[in-house]
């Protein structure tokens, strides 16, 4: 396998280092900037759903000079995350924290689950927040309770964060529920536990990343738990200006592409496919590698003239998923494809890898991704996407236009393998799909109007807190 790092002695490498430092310092901005809120259409109209029908929140596309979140100035906001890591949920909440501090909100962060031993990653993220004006408190104790009672708004991040309510607030839970906005990202069935979400019907509102996930939560909570969702907002994420600037800078893309490919031992003419997700069985890296191996077999059996292909797994963490990742590496060794497969450690700086790729594979299994931020980031870099036909990916990828969708599970291995071969053999198709994906991002998944959208949601939650929550999804 190729090396994963090189020196920075030449002027070109120093230029590259500047880019990489930018990505590291503003990593949260790169990863999760600017969520768009509401049911979106390309004309800038957004709506929330309840039992009485659709409530339209029309913002249009007009440029605004004042930050629409200015009304949050001086307000106290408590953010409660189930963990603090490089995964999507905590990073999204950190992005919200920075948006609020930028307009003068007083933001307090609580991490409910902390490791017993000091975690360098968590320490680094907490330091980043402290540097941006976010106060970090212990999850338990009187200070946490007092902050929750005084806060103008409390944001619970992910369903698991619901465990914090009874464990810490105890008898004060009912006083805090009317000012909670619950941001949910999970799709897996084990999150539908009374232990986590018994208070969900009584909060001011819920925010969910895709229509598919919102509908799933609506049905699952009713059928399994016998509860109704509160007023629910669908949140489609968008790309940051920072990421778009790099994606649209041909010089930056070229320098990043050359560096990453050199570090991996991949030539410019080779075709590079990658999954960029934390390594876990639910993200489907095992099935991707099986499909990649199958694609090599198809090329060999059919004697096709195809450039050399490589597969990259970005998100490796042997400490977190030792057994599963050992299985992946054993498969690669057993099939003799070590020269074609590369493992890269989990990183916030995903833009360099997007610049280096030819195709992104979004292979999340079961119900798929709740949304899949990396998908729209890849499309910004004009990459076609091969995704599973599940979850939020179906709301992003236009099958046959910006990429192709394949079934989840083992049934998807052969279709994915065939799609890999088709794109590897056809650079014109890759370019055409990539350009269409970029156009879709510019039309639907951009930063523009994001502040207006999130402001409209926060305003509504603040206005409705304390009122009887009879409006349902």
What's the short story on this structure?
The chain is α/β, with parallel strands linked by helices and 473 residues long. The protein contains 18 helices and 17 strands.
Task: Walk me through this protein's architecture.
The chain is α/β, with parallel strands linked by helices and 473 residues long. The chain has 2 domains: 70-114 and 122-234, Rossmann fold (3-Layer(aba) Sandwich); 241-441, Rossmann fold, CATH 3.40.50. The protein is built from 18 helices and 17 strands. The strands form 3 sheets. The chain has an 8-stranded mixed β-sheet, sandwiched between helices. Strands 14-13-12-15-16-17 form a 6-stranded parallel β-sheet, sandwiched between helices. Strands 2-3-4 form a 3-stranded antiparallel β-sheet, with no helix packed on it. The longest helix has 18 residues, at 427-444. It is globular. The protein starts with 10 loop residues before the first helix and ends in a 9-residue tail after the last helix. It comes from Papaver somniferum (Opium poppy).
């Amino acid at each position: 396998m190729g090396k994963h790092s090189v020196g920075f002695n030449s002027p070109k490498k120093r230029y590259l280092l500047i880019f990489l430092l930018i990505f590291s310092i503003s990593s949260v901005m790169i990863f999760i900037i600017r969520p768009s809120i509401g049911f979106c259409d390309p004309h800038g109209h957004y709506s929330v759903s309840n039992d009485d029908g659709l409530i339209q929140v029309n913002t249009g596309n007009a440029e605004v000079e004042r930050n629409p979140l200015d009304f949050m100035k001086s307000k106290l906001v408590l953010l409660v995350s189930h963990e603090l890591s490089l995964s999507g949920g905590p990073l999204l909440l950190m992005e919200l924290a920075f948006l609020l501090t930028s307009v003068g909100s007083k933001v307090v962060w609580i991490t409910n689950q902390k490791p017993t031993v000091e975690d360098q990653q968590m320490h680094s993220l907490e330091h980043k927040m402290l540097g941006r004006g976010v106060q970090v408190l212990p999850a338990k104790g009187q200070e946490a309770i007092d902050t929750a009672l005084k806060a103008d708004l409390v944001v619970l991040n992910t369903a698991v964060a619901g465990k914090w309510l009874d464990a810490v607030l105890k008898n004060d839970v009912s006083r805090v529920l009317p000012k909670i906005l619950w941001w949910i990202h999970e799709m897996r069935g084990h999150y539908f536990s009374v232990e986590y979400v018994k208070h969900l019907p009584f909060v001011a509102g819920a925010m969910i990343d895709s229509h598919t996930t919102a509908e799933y939560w609506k049905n699952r909570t009713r059928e399994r738990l016998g509860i109704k969702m509160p007023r629910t907002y669908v949140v489609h994420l968008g790309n940051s200006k920072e990421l778009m600037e790099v994606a649209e800078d041909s010089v930056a893309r070229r320098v990043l592409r050359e560096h990453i490919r050199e570090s991996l031992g991949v030539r410019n003419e080779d075709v590079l496919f990658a999954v960029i997700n934390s390594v876990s069985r639910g993200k489907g890296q095992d099935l991707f590698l099986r499909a990649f191996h199958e694609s090599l077999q198809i090329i060999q059996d059919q004697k096709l003239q195809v450039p050399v292909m490589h597969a990259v797994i970005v998100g490796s963490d042997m400490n977190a998923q030792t057994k599963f990742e050992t299985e992946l590496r054993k498969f690669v060794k057993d099939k003799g494809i070590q020269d074609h497969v590369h493992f890269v450690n989990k990183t916030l700086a995903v833009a360099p890898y997007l610049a280096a790729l030819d195709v992104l594979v979004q292979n999340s299994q079961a119900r798929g991704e709740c949304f899949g931020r990396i998908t729209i980031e890849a499309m910004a870099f004009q990459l076609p996407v091969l995704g599973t036909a599940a979850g939020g990916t179906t709301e992003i990828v236009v099958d046959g236009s910006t990429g192709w969708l394949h079934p989840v599970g083992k049934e998807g291995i052969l279709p994915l393998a065939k799609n890999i071969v088709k794109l590897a053999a056809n650079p014109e198709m890759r370019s055409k799909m990539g350009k269409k994906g970029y156009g879709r991002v510019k039309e639907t998944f951009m930063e523009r109007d994001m502040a207006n959208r999130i402001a409209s949601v926060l305003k509504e939650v603040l206005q409705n807190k304390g009122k009887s929550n009879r409006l349902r999804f």
